[in-house]
């Protein structure tokens, strides 16, 4: 594709996306296809000769679109928001166009320096503890996801706890980790990957607000110590996936300090809310954490992937992750004047993801990002009030920010049927969780284009579906 | 940013990239800036209010560009190619525009099905063993990098070797792994991450062609067994980073079969060459492998990230990686009729990376991709012949495909100075490796726009710099 062809085809794709932005509401939110339906339309063999670009775009419309679940629809209330925006998409495009590798500072200095700088900006934007800034002993890095951030935190913790010997000798101790029953599945997965075993992660029960009970955490640690285990890591969650609950970081942090445990805080979904003064309470106690992450790719208009991961003391992370073969040696690395982000992550290669983050913050300014958060939280609180006022429904957990967990009072089966009917209609998409042993529907309000009318319509559909199912 | 603003700004970025494609040759290949030079131009605080898009693009030109090392320059001969192309960039843009999550089949069926289908196409395109197809017991998945693919292979191998108990209990055995001294650093890193310890990776010496000596592999395995270790994993490399050498897969595979070891083959850089009949010898013996990966994001016009990772028997991988919390349960997953790619990778979330791969294969057709490979290999062989014919220089390793390793006969210091002078000129960018204990310069020819004149010019510059340094 020549530069001129790229100009032509590029305009076609830009227009296609602009059109999609204008019409996304018209698609069924959840793809209504059976397994194999998309593959059935694809030829068994790849083409020997190139095909014209407009033909490929026709297949995008005809073959691909029926198999898309529309995460960008204002009627998408499932899982978590994965909102995107024009500046973010263009940042992604620019990054693809430059095609640089950011594994070392030397492989493209701007890629590293803009990342470091913007992640320092975010410390101020969210009023995170200063120790997470690169200007001291800490620093931030972009990961593909909170899963990877949690794994990196766990590895740094594992190495610090074993005096950096596990990496060379393998695992000598019986190490144990701790998180709430509502912690993300990636904590379990990280324990598996790190060779520590899922059974050595203690899942601590939650209180009536679905937050970790710190007294039980302390009990579990003491029991493990008495039994000859070596506690090393706690993951606190700010905004659990199931319930949006917030663990008591200050209490957890004091326990960690007392027992020399690494405290990682996973605020993947909720963290962005801290750009607003009034929501900063979610981070109370964060000054006691060793590491922290949140995802601009969820609720800050940056398209996936963009998780921001911070450590208070970067040396542990780097020591845990560094392998330097001869072919990556270079003067800048040797002088230690620079950050080489390959030592802050699992893979070696990395693309220029800071561009989209930089473009989003600059295009919107912090104030517009705050308005978006405030609007979503306001809508969630309104929705929660409607649920609360309806005798057929109940709230399944307190509504802290933008996630409303609720259920029909008719029991699990009734709620499952309600959910299936709603999602099958294509008009909204919600998902579920188990809270207090019973099914709950999750209304996650965070899509960039969701307005009051979409939330009102969703509530109307929910009530209608509940009534229809009763007849 | 409204759809209309997106149309306008999108065109600006498309034109900017087209212009960059036309002018990339004029930039110094290696960024000529000191540490901190880019950050110095960035404001200490993020903007409260949004800024106009053209102002941001001006900063891209003025602040960012001096800090870019131009991986897309035809004079980029360093590390490995990370070539991109118009169709790939537009696939990336479309993926950002759709903004779907591909963690489950249900979260966007097309995202999963196109990935599975195109990865099956590639089995045919590269004439890989049929067992890697999804239509049997195997299958392919896109990873961010070969590092992550190697880690996933190692984890599946670890679990298979411990009867899937390490994931729950932690590591009971003293497991040992094996790879050539020239294997990628990610094998060491994977051992560290997996809790197995870098010291338990045996780096087997290479022969005069820089390929793993299989007799020494067998010796090491036998020694470890005798000493009470449990060998479980071998990584064979097709196209080593340092020297481009190819390990003897057939001999290694026979040893693995005999000792029930998992054989992973890392063909990150070189694998793409197998789309040409005449280069398929690099995969001789691959039918004995349990897993395999290569990177279309290196040498197949797909921008980073796009590593294709295959397993012969997907159950082991899925069993090793699966964690299913309630909030991800859904009917399609329960019926097992679908692939949920979150169980094939480290993170949970994933974006629609198959789009760019699909667009590239369809836009170019297999034949044009073959031409590109053939041209690069031809140029590398010509360059190797020039080196060989010059009494001041020597080849440091055989030229198998597109990587020429060579050195000035004047010793390490002379070669280091030569390399520094060349890279400091900004006119070419090469990197180095240690081969046979001595420094070697690596001429990696794989950038999409590299033509004969660029390779000729590079050789001319190398000879001039060598002469200048002598005076």
The number of helical elements of chain A comes to: 15
How many independent structural domains of chain A?
Answer: 3
The major pleated sheet of chain A works out as:
7 strands, mixed
Taken as a percent bin, the fraction of beta residues of chain A is 5-15%
Largest interface: A-B, 148 and 150 residues
Please provide the count of β strands of chain A.
Answer: 11
What is the share of helical residues of chain A? 40-55%
Task: Give an overview of the whole structure.
The structure is a homodimer of 471-residue chains. Chain A is α/β, with parallel strands linked by helices and 471 residues long. Chain A has three domains: 78 residues, dopa decarboxylase, N-terminal domain; 252 residues, Type I PLP-dependent aspartate aminotransferase-like (Major domain) (Aspartate Aminotransferase, domain 2), CATH 3.40.640; 102 residues, Aspartate Aminotransferase, domain 1 (Alpha-Beta Complex), CATH 3.90.1150.10. In chain A, strands 1-7-6-5-4-2-3 form a seven-stranded mixed beta sheet, with helices on both faces. The longest helix of chain A has 36 residues. Chain A is globular. Chains A and B meet through α1, α2, α3, α4 and α5 of A and α1, α2, α3, α4 and α5 of B.
